[in-house]
What we know:
3-stranded mixed β-sheet; elongated
Amino acid sequence: xxxxxxxxxxxxxxxxxxxxxxxxxxxxxxxxxxxxxxxxxxxxxxxxxxxxxxxxxxxxxxxxxxxxxxxxxxxxxxxxxxxxxxxxxxxxxxxxxxxxxxxxxxxxxxxxxxxxxxxxxxxxxxxxxxxxxxxxxxxxxxxxxxxxxxxxxxxxxxxxxxxxxxxxxxxxxxxxxxxxxxxxxxxxxxxxxxxxxxxxxxxxxxxxxxxxxxxxxxxxxxxxxxxxxxxxxxxxxxxxxxxxxxxxxxxxxxxxxxxxxxxxxxxxxxxxxxxxxxxxxxxxxxxxxxxxxxxxxxxxxxxxxxxxxxxxxxxxxxxxxxxxxxxxxxxxxxxxxxxxxxxxxxxxxxxxxxxxxxxxxxxxxxxxxxxxxxxxxxxxxxxxxxxxxxxxxxxxxxxxxxxxxxxxx
Length: 409
């Protein structure tokens, strides 16, 4: 992963002290000799304030701080680009840069890279890597704003002789998963080992607020329908954002993933739930969809206020809430698997009154087909009524056929 950034240090040196004059600074156990040009490079500062006074220009400034940390600060003053080796050195440099009021160095330290410790491993990555729309503001922008609110700038530590110790950003999350996220952000390639790995990565995206990367990781499929010549996106019901869904009377509903998609595509909604049924009304000769529970509530939230009159929420005697959503449905172009077998077109008509002899063993005015998995497009027609147009579905008629699908551990 590239560690280059756009940050540039201003090379101009203000004429504060005589450039050719040498100044002595004793830091810890070491004596540093710096030219007036170096001392003036990042000014006004603690040093220019001291040596700028006539009575101090030939004195040795003694500072009770770490000479190892000041070694890098000295390189900065001499015009070199410096970089902290890890999150702890960053905090040491920041504390002393604050103490010495070195604004150029402070800017570089806080606006160049993000430093953190995740799961016991040190990370350093360019802030630009997570600065795009949807990925910012994020965990690190907030953490840095909190961590680097120096009390010196607020005048709260006037009588303190040295900066207080500050801890770096330490995150008790998976270092491996964080590495995977950084690789995805830097390369643009999403590498997912399996569905469990995907769920873990999605959880990490939400924790760090990498919302654009989250949208790329969400399971989906984009393809062009050769018959309509329209691009379609298949995405699960739970992952659809209402604000990004558009339903008009002119055609099927379209969807544009937030922060990721430049254009909207025809939405193919995938539903995997035990709360979905296809109801075949034998005497009335029509079919409709019934969703219950959380699936009904999710669909109602997504589609309301459209077809709100088809939604029912009833409080039962035990205090529980029973929710139902009925939808009009078209299966004309749906590839349907029933009880593990592919059906013919308009197969459901065999259940209507006077239908096929093969269906006579199923009694009742309503045949309930439990939909294990299904995909639908959503259309608005018939005075604004919503219709679910079947694309792909897999259902069972009874417990035995459901059990046949279980499989063994």
